[in-house]
């Protein structure tokens, strides 16, 4: 496997904690940060027209109401937390946003002439990683966006659940539970993202025979999490007709799916576990996308 691929998948040389330090930097202003030209200085102020958004920004949706509200705050108090930027790879005279595009957009609405920034020397891969971390830390994040952020950090950069838990200040069980949500069908994730279902509802639906049908019933009837859990286990006969199991298909339990996610994150490859019901045997399938990945896997298995 090439050195570039390994560096990308194994979380970069400086590590997740070092990148977290950039995202968590407060708003303390440095007395020495007086000119735009000083790279890696804390809290510079640069003309807003010299700052560009990152075309690979993972966050694509910025609601107008949210931007208007933030713009009002900026008019009154200014931008309280500096944006993290780097030199634009295509134009050394410009800056590219690593974290803080929402603040940049709102500052434009508030007609700010300049904005505070922290200039960091980051590669394309590091820039994307910081952007994902910053999105995960947003207070208004919905459960699906949070889970997608964890999934991206694990799939793209090879971070384990334990490493994410330590760096982000979350429990491992919280991250594992959020990742399990990604096994739900798209329509169920849509209900969850819109707030029609809670995380508790979604976790109960993971082991249901037909999560989509049950999710629609839960939303239509306004069922509680406990009622949803009973329906998912098939213990209530008055509310819903018994569901027939899919012929020839064995549904995996949440623990098996979580184990697949853990192994896949550690290997950086797709992993499938097929365990025979009521037995001790099964099959573990690892899918590789290239001969380089196969070579890397053989080296690991060979010690």
Task: Provide a brief overview of the structure.
This protein is 47% helix and 13% strand. It has 303 residues and is α/β, with parallel strands linked by helices. Helix 10 (199-205) runs parallel beside helix 12 (225-232).
Written overview of the protein:
This protein is α/β, with parallel strands linked by helices. The chain folds into three domains: 134 residues, Conserved hypothetical protein from pyrococcus furiosus pfu- 392566-001, ParB domain; 77 residues, Orthogonal Bundle (Arc Repressor Mutant, subunit A); 48 residues, no CATH class. Helices cover 47% and strands 13% of the residues. It has 14 helices and seven strands. The strands form two sheets. It has a five-stranded mixed β-sheet. A two-stranded antiparallel ribbon has the order 6-7. A hairpin with a 6-residue loop joins strand 6 and strand 7. Helix 3 crosses helix 4 and helix 8 packs across helix 13. The N terminus is likely disordered.
């Amino acid at each position: 496997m090439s050195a570039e691929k390994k560096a990308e998948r194994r979380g970069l040389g400086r590590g997740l904690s070092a990148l977290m330090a950039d995202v968590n930097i407060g708003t303390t202003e440095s007395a020495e940060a007086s000119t735009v030209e000083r790279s890696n200085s804390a809290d510079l102020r640069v003309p807003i027209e010299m700052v560009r958004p990152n075309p690979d920004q993972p966050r694509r949706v910025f609601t107008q109401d949210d931007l208007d509200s933030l713009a009002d705050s900026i008019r009154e108090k200014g931008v309280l937390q500096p944006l993290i930027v780097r030199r634009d790879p295509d134009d050394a005279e410009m800056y590219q946003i690593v974290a803080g595009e929402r603040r940049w957009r709102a500052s434009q609405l508030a007609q700010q002439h300049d904005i505070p920034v922290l200039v960091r020397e980051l590669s394309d891969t590091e820039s994307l990683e910081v952007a994902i971390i910053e999105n995960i830390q947003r207070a208004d994040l919905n459960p699906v966006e949070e889970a997608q952020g964890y999934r991206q950090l694990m799939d793209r950069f090879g971070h384990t659940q334990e490493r994410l838990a330590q760096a982000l200040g979350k429990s491992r069980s919280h991250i594992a539970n959020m990742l399990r949500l990604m096994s739900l069908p798209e329509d169920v994730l849509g209900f969850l993202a819109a707030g029609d279902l809670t995380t508790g509802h979604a976790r109960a639906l993971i082991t249901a025979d037909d999560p989509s049908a049950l999710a629609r019933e839960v939303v239509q009837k306004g069922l509680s999490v406990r009622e949803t859990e009973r329906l998912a286990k098939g213990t209530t006969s008055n509310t819903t007709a018994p569901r027939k199991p899919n012929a020839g298909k064995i549904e995996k339990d949440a623990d098996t799916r979580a184990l697949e996610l853990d192994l896949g994150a550690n290997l950086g490859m797709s992993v499938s576990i097929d365990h025979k019901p009521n037995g001790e045997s099964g099959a573990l399938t690892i899918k590789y996308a290239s001969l380089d990945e196969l070579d890397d896997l053989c080296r690991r298995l060979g010690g």
